[in-house]
Amino acid sequence: MLRVPLARRAVKSYGVRQEIAPTLRVSSRAQRVILGVRLAVFKAYDIRGTYPDQLDEDLAYAIGRATARFIGAERLAVGRDARRHSPALCNALVRGVTDEGVTVVDLGLVATPMVYFAVADLGVGGGIMVTASHNPAEYNGFKICRENAIPIGENSGLREIEALSRTCPGEPPAGRPGGVVQVDVRDGYVDHVLSVGAGRPRVRVAIDCANGMASVGLEPLLERLDIEVERLYFEPDGSFPNHEADPLKVENLEDVSEAVRRVGADFGVAFDGDADRAVFVDERGRPIASDLMTGVMARHQLERSPGGVVLYDLRSSRAVAEEIEKAGGVAEMCRVGHSFVKAQMRESNAIFAGELSGHTYFRFSDRLVADDGIASFVAMLDVVAAEGKPVSQILEPMRRYHASGEINRRVRDTNRVLAAIEREHAGAPEVSKLDGLLVRYDDWWFNLRPSNTEPMLRLNLEADTEAKMQAERDRILARVEALGD
To answer: Which of 133, 165, 257, 290 is catalytic?
Structure first.
């Protein structure tokens, strides 16, 4: 477990000697951060950048102090992944939190959903996970939440934390530093994820942890399940020696697909680096689109909570809403992004939600709404137990429309392109600007969304037939390219 010295050092981050403050001695590395690198690492939903040129111990210390001050709680939970620089960044972060007089509940090496669970279960005021999720090994970052794991993003406090991180390090620390207590949440977390599914089939599964953090929560769970497991890359290793921890890239599913076919597994699952996402393959090793998984899982979650509200992101197939309503649920469309999904789940009292990215969200309790890849695996076991037939047959009825998949195009001015295409489709039966531009016709629809970080538009399109999908896809892309020059 992580051990953090509580003794105050004479020289703080950014080279500030407390005995001569407020006259600051600023290191050249800190100057780079202050002069602009910091702007690059504060994203829409988290903090993320390459180590050490964009994100280093100085900035981690500043973020620790800023987060503690912004949340204003007596205790914060902190966890980390297995990247080689995570221990150093975590130590600096914890030092910043404790210098604000806040006690750190140190969770050690955990998956991100385990931090969410700990925040709610232990009743602490918030949590910070040191991780860059699915990004390559040179990246690191922080995911931050408030009480009950309510996310802190661009529109809910992250900009305030960014501003505070510019000023906090130059101020004297609290008169009495906070302490550090170490807590192991693994056993409680297993009980927590088992709450989302009643079925316990005797199946064979292939699981690819991609050397990320999923195995930390999975191993104690698997000890309590009567299933056969083909394990792939369970050892946490932040260098990701086998393949990237990004299951949305089809090449990163090749190993789990091959393992499914080799051992005759009933299905396979691949996790991202911090285990808040999971992507599945069927008994033939074929990848399953995550929107279809939302529809199938929703059907069984609705058996547990009849008539409940289920959210699906606006890029999802029409089959998802149809499946939810067929099962007696209320289908509601939502924006893309975990902070938006969780906020809408709380507002609508939704029981379940899913995104095309592989994020699956559960209402674990009245207090806790969270995305959790490991809980998604448990929910999949529930589906298999209830359906009693091959996964490919379970999914086949939902494959009744034809989707383009997400297609990216760089443009000079995303707003200008979106406005022009909106005018061209003003006569459509449905036009929405919930997230980018959503246009629906009777037999096809499309969504164009701008990237949060690049001059890029992302197209998702679906039609009743393959020919219609291809024709409309090519027509929209041609217009984007013509308008984007």
So the answer is: 133
Same domain, yes or no, for 343 and 216? no
Regarding whether 377 and 246 lie in a shared domain, the answer is no
pLDDT > 90? residue 176: yes
Against a cut of 0.85, is the pTM above it? Answer: yes
The verdict on 391 and 414 lying in the same domain is no
Q: What is the mean pLDDT of the chain?
A: 92
Does some domain include residue 341? Answer: yes
Check pLDDT > 70 for residue 479. Answer: yes
HSE-CB for 90 with a 13 A CA cutoff: 30
- Reported in sequence order, the residue ranges of 303-384 that DSSP labels E, i.e. its strands, are 309-313, 330-334, 352-354, 360-363, 369-371
pLDDT of residue 20: 23
pLDDT for the residue numbered 109: 98
Q: Is 133 part of the annotated catalytic residue set? A: yes
Cis peptide before 397 (omega within 30 of 0): no
Query: Can you give the residue range of the structural domain that contains 307?
Result: 290-398
Look up the CATH number of the domain holding residue 336.
3.40.120.10
Q: Which long-range contacts (CB under 8 A, 24 or more apart) does 362-370 make?
A: 362/196, 362/301, 364/117, 364/120, 364/192, 364/195, 364/196, 365/120, 367/120, 367/148, 368/116, 368/117, 368/120, 368/148, 368/149, 369/149, 369/342, 369/345, 370/113, 370/116, 370/117, 370/149, 370/342
User: Residues 91-110: pLDDT tens digits?
Assistant: 999 999 999 999 999 999 99
- Do 230 and 167 share a structural domain? no
